[in-house]
Amino acid sequence: MHLTREEEAILNGESGPTLQKAMEIITALGDIYKADSLVPIKSAQIAGVSYKTIGDAGLEWISDLEGKVVVPSILNPAGMDLERWREMGIDEEFAARQTRIIEAYRQLGVRCECTCTPYYIDPALASYGDHLAWSESSAVSYANSVIGARTNREGGPSALAAALIGKTANYGYHLDEKRVPVITVHVDCHVSGADFGALGYLIGAQVGADVPMFRLRSRPNDLELKALGAAMAASGAVALYHVEGVTPESDSYQAPAETITIERSQIDEVFEKNCPEEVDLIALGCPHYSAEELEAAANLLEGVTMNKEVWICTSRQVRDKNPDAVHRIEASGARVFVDTCMVVSPATERFGCVLTDSGKALKYIPGMCGVGAGLASTRDCLKGGDID
Ligand code: F3S
């Protein structure tokens, strides 16, 4: 891989041990994936924030780093709402260690807004054609597919390394040739809302890390694209997809000859197979809810009282800009938690079965929380709370 004289100097330790370590991570990945050079990035989104997932070793690693990030950098969800953690059932020891992780990132100049939907809080973080180093898989999918930016699915350490250097290795989805679709997904029915999570859940398992091109009968909105990409990134490793006539790069490609056809019965089957009899937590907001989704939930909960625990996860900024929706949601007994989610928080582990409207959460909750999970539309999830 070609390095400039300045990059070589950083690698040789001339800018200190933190930047040397960061450059070692980036160049090691570049060598493995045969990158030709480094490419400047517009922003970084850094996973590896929840104490549940990184533990003491991760805390120690971040705390040992010095200096500041050189591009706008933002954190993925943490293991708790940084203010309302007691309400989630988080214990003091976990809270103390989680707080230290956040402080360690803050010392490095990272914005401690913990969200997997950074595009809702600062559109300047990613625009069409920008190179990024983002790590949360649904954010990566959204950036590549819906925004038309370019990022690999970075690990937490490599995203942080890229944030410190301001560059990442130029391979994978940074290159035109890796963005070409290789399989067409023909969806032979109308799909809407949570159907997109079920569709992504099905397709990710079939295509793995390939780039699919969707042919749909209806035109999905950005919320539906968010749900589709998140589910495909969880059941498979899809980091980029196209939707004919909808996503920004789709016009550049022909639909590939190899085709998968999906029918209504297959989507219905995902809901039927994942319809638990007993649910004790309803968890929405994977990926973090937008203002529009909060408003829709508030409308569904208007004038009702929930008799089950209901969490709605969003970013702090979306919550703060929508106080009326939050107030109406919480009047029902449901709670709006920020900075965290039902997958990366240990608080979910005390429940028996979680009902969600997200194909991604359906896939991850059993594996990461050891808890059963079911899938339903947002409306049906909230009905599952036995609205009085
Ligand atoms: Fe976001 Fe957590 Fe889902 S990080 S995509 S809400 S698993």
- Return residue spans where pLDDT drops below 50 for at least 5 consecutive residues: none
CATH architecture of the largest domain: 2-Layer Sandwich
Mean pLDDT: 97
**How would the global form be characterised?**
globular
Total of DSSP H or I helical runs spanning 4+ residues = 16
Using DSSP, what is the number of strands?
Answer: 14
Give the key terms.
five-stranded parallel beta sheet; Aconitase, Domain 2; 3 domains; four-stranded parallel beta sheet; alpha/beta; Aconitase, domain 3; globular; binds FE3-S4 cluster; 16 helices; 388 residues; 41% helix
Please describe what this structure looks like.
This protein has 388 residues and is of the alpha/beta class. The chain has 3 domains: 5-176, Aconitase, domain 3 (2-Layer Sandwich); 180-271, Aconitase, Domain 2, CATH 3.40.1060; 273-383, Aconitase, domain 3. The chain contains 16 helices and 14 strands. The chain has helices at residues 5-11, 17-32, 51-63, 85-88, 92-107, 118-121, 137-147, 156-165, 195-207, 222-235, 264-273, 291-301, 316-321, 323-331, 359-369, 378-383, and strands spanning 38-40, 44-46, 73-75, 133-134, 167-169, 183-187, 212-215, 242-243, 259-262, 281-289, 309-314, 335-338, 353-356, 372-375. It has a 5-stranded parallel sheet, with helices on both faces. It has a 4-stranded parallel sheet with strand order 8-7-6-9. Strand 7, helix 10 (222-235) and strand 8 form a beta-alpha-beta unit. The longest helix has 16 residues, at 17-32. The chain starts with a helix and ends in a 5-residue tail after the last helix. Residues 76-77, 116, 136, 138, 230, 286-288, 313, 341, 343-344, 360-361, 364 line the site of FE3-S4 cluster (F3S).
